[in-house]
Amino acid sequence: MTIKTKTLIALILLSMVDTVIPLPIIGVILIYVLLQRPPWVRNVIGELYGEIESDRAR
Question: Which of 5, 22, 33, 44 has the fewest CB atoms found within 10 Å of its own CB?
Answer without folding.
Answer: 22
